[in-house]
Amino acid sequence: MRHELEILDEIKLLSDDGQFIAWSNWWHFSYRGHRMVYQPNVDSQTLRICIPHFDNVANYDPEVLLRAINRVNREVRYVKIFILDNGSISLNYDHRCECQADSCAIAKHILETLIFAAEYLKNALF
Question: Is pLDDT at 1 greater than 60 in this prediction?
């Protein structure tokens, strides 16, 4: 749990802004123009940082979208893209917390990997 809080502290330092969402213990923030959410999962000692609404599926041809998502899911390590029930395209990075790891490096890596995956997906769609 301590390491997870250290990662959250680093994300707060790196983010453009931030807002704690009390009912869920989530942290909603912006990083390099993308709205993101930090979602802790204390039970399994993992955390998820995601871009919960990258775009809406209705904005794309379904075949092109599926091909682009599959490509990014295969080629970008650690990030998985999902289509949510409400039609949102979500990019997720799940991280298992380990106490000996460098929190600053992990936070920066997660955020930069999500940004890279978002740009990669955008380019794959056009």
Answer: no
